[in-house]
Specification:
This protein is an alpha/beta fold. Among the domains are: 49 residues; 163 residues, 2-Layer Sandwich (Alpha-Beta Plaits). 66% of the residues lie in helices and 11% in strands. It has a six-stranded mixed β-sheet with strand order 1-3-4-2-5-6, sandwiched between helices. Strand 3 and strand 4 form a beta hairpin. The chain is rod-shaped.
Length: 325
C-alpha cells in the first residue's frame, strides 16, 4: 500500500525527488523479497528439521517412560508395603482382640469352675454335716432306746447302773445323802391273769406316770425289772421317805386302771427305802439298794400296801436295823 502511494506520489514530484525516493523503494522491495524468502525457507527448514524431531522424541520417550515406570513401581511397592503394614496391623489387632477375648473367656470359665467347686464343696459340707447329724441323732435315739423302757418311757436298769456309780462319787465329794426306793406292784400277776397282758401293760404305764408325778424333776425314776421300779432322790434323807411314799399311795388311789366294759380298778404298791450316806465309807450304792430291797421284802411279808425304811448303818452285819413303817 505504501509502495503504491509512493508510486502515485512520484508522478507529481520532480526527477530529483523521484530519484531520492527510488532507493528507499528498492530497499523495501528487497526487504519484502527477503521476507518472502524467509517465509518460503521456513517450511523447508521445518521439513528438514522434522525428521529429527521424532528421533529426539523417541530418544526422550524411553527415558521418561522408565522414570514413570520406576515411579509407578515405587508407588506400587509403597502402596503394597503400606497395605501389608495395614494388613499386618489389622492381623495384630485381630490377634490381640482374640487374645483378650480368650483371656476373658478363660477368666469366665475359671470363675464358673471356682463357683462350681465352691458349690460342690458347700454341698459336700452340708451333706457331711447332715450325715454327721443323722448319725448323731441315730446314736442318740439308739442310746435313748437302749437306756429307756419302751413301754413306760422311764429309764431302765442299763441307765441306772452307770448313773448311780457316777452319782455316788458326786455325793461323796459333796457330802450329800440320797434316798433309794424300790416299789413293787402288789398282786400284779393276778392282773395279767384276769385282765390280760394289755391291761397289765396299761397298769405299768399308769403306775410309772404316778411315780413320775410324785417326785422332783431332779429325781430319777427307772423301771428296775418286771413290775418293780427304782427311785433315786439325791439330797434327800430319812425324813422325806414318809412324804414321798404318802404321795405315791395317794396318787395311785386316785388313778384307776381302765378296763374295757368296767369302771376299772386301783392298784397298790409296796415300797422299801434306804438312805445312802457318804459318811459310810464301806457301803456303795448297790449295798444301799440291797437294803431297800430287803425292806421291800419285809413289807410284802407284812401284808403289802405299805412302805418300810431300812435304817441300818452297814450291811456287813447281815441284820437290818429296826425299820419305820
Amino acid at each position: 500500500m505504501r509502495i503504491l502511494r509512493s508510486s502515485h506520489s512520484s508522478a507529481n514530484l520532480s526527477p530529483r525527488q523521484t530519484a531520492r525516493f527510488q532507493i528507499p523503494g528498492n530497499a523495501c522491495c528487497l526487504q519484502v523479497l527477503l521476507f518472502s524468502l524467509l517465509l518460503l525457507a521456513a517450511p523447508l527448514a521445518a521439513q528438514t528439521a522434522a525428521p529429527d524431531a521424532p528421533r529426539q522424541i523417541q530418544r526422550k520417550r524411553p527415558e521418561n517412560f522408565d522414570l514413570l515406570r520406576k515411579d509407578q513401581q515405587i508407588a506400587v511397592l509403597r502402596a503394597q508395603s503400606q497395605l501389608m503394614a495395614a494388613e499386618k496391623l489389622r492381623q495384630q489387632l485381630v490377634q490381640e482382640k482374640r487374645n483378650q477375648q480368650f483371656q476373658i473367656d478363660a477368666m469366665a470359665r475359671r470363675g464358673q469352675l471356682q463357683n462350681a467347686l465352691s458349690a460342690l464343696l458347700l454341698i459336700c459340707l452340708l451333706l457331711t454335716v447332715a450325715l454327721a447329724w443323722s448319725l448323731w441323732r441315730i446314736s442318740v435315739v439308739r442310746n435313748n432306746e437302749a437306756l429307756e423302757d419302751p413301754l413306760t418311757g422311764l429309764k431302765n436298769r442299763r441307765f441306772l447302773v452307770p448313773f448311780m456309780e457316777h452319782e455316788t462319787g458326786r455325793l461323796r465329794r459333796s457330802a450329800v445323802s440320797a434316798l433309794i426306793l424300790i416299789a413293787d406292784i402288789d398282786h400284779f400277776k393276778n392282773v395279767n391273769d384276769r385282765w390280760g397282758h394289755n391291761v397289765g401293760d396299761e397298769a405299768l404305764v399308769e403306775v410309772a406316770r404316778a411315780l413320775r408325778t410324785c417326785v422332783r424333776n431332779s429325781d430319777v425314776v427307772a423301771r428296775w425289772g418286771g413290775e418293780e421300779f427304782a427311785l433315786v432322790c439325791p439330797q434327800s434323807s430319812a425324813e422325806h421317805v414318809a412324804v414321798i411314799c404318802g404321795r405315791i399311795r395317794h396318787q395311785l388311789q386316785r388313778t384307776p386302771i381302765p378296763v374295757p366294759g368296767t369302771a376299772g380298778f386301783h392298784l397298790t404298791v409296796s415300797i422299801g427305802a434306804a438312805v445312802f450316806s457318804p459318811a459310810t465309807r464301806d457301803e456303795n450304792w448297790m449295798a444301799t439298794l440291797a437294803r431297800a430291797d430287803h425292806a421291800l421284802y419285809c413289807v410284802k411279808q407284812a401284808g403289802r400296801d405299805g412302805w418300810l425304811l431300812d435304817t441300818s448303818v452297814s450291811s456287813q452285819t447281815g441284820e437290818p436295823a429296826p425299820a419305820t413303817t
